[in-house]
Amino acid sequence: MSLFPSSREFETPRAALRRELLARRNAVPDPVAREASESAAARVASSRMFHSAVRIAAYAGLAGELDPAPLVSTALGAGKSLYLPRVLDAGHMDFVRWEAGEPLHANRFGILEPLPDSRRTIAPDSLDLVLVPLLGFDARGNRLGFGAGFYDRAFAFKLHGAARPVLCGYAYAWQETSLPEAADWDVPLDAVATEQGLRYFQARAGKG
After folding, report:
1. Which of 152, 192, 200 is nearest to 176 (CA)?
2. Which terminus of the chain has a smaller tally of CB atoms within 10 A, N or C?
């Protein structure tokens, strides 16, 4: 028996939960992920928040993650303006307009993102609907991300009552869990979309 504690003994509850949820997500078989992604996309595409949105932000999904690609295709086919996040220095990100077929490159986290283009960059508060990646969410709309705080910084203005954009978590239904108490800077979700349906946490999210 080692006299020295393992690194896991020093994990915070959030870090331990992230590790557990990430391992489970990474184990999702590709066929299951594809079917769930198609189902979630169909549910969002039939919602009022989608139909009323003109400028939509999504993200490039990672392996095992609920993939927004089917919804991205629907949005582009419906003439929506589609934006993808781009990681900047100092823990910030911006959103660049993207069209089907345009090149993406991997950032330092291995996530695909658009090339920089100041002419096509939009301010976060000019978006209408944002699909937000996550590791976990709870019944109050709190979100567990990867801990870098990019989305919380980008949409911190929502903490002061801004109704737009609608922040919609994109996740498997099993990613609902009990989360540690939210910090003052954690920006809650307005809604969450899963393969089982849509749930709204704020009346301002535009039900239907």
Report:
1. 192
2. N
Do the domain assignments include residue 54? yes
B/e letters for 90-124, b = 16+ CB within 10 Å, e = fewer, are eeebbbbbbeeeeeeeeeeeebebbeeeeebeeeb
β strands within the chain, DSSP E: 55-57, 81-87, 93-97, 104-106, 112-114, 121-122, 129-132, 136-137, 143-144, 166-170, 191-194, 197-200
Does 143 map to a domain?
yes
Neighbour-count burial of 37, counting CB atoms closer than 10 A to its CB (0-12 exposed, 13-18 middle, 19+ buried): buried
Q: How confident is the model at residue 5 (pLDDT cuts 50, 70, 90)?
A: very low
The predicted model scores a pTM of: 0.89
Domains in the chain, number: 1
Q: Say if 1 falls within a structural domain.
A: no
The pLDDT assigned to 206 comes to 45
Structural domain contains residue 130:
yes
Task: State the average pLDDT over residues 27-32.
Answer: 93
Write out the residue range of the structural domain in which residue 109 sits. Answer: 7-205
CATH number at residue 78: 3.40.50.10420
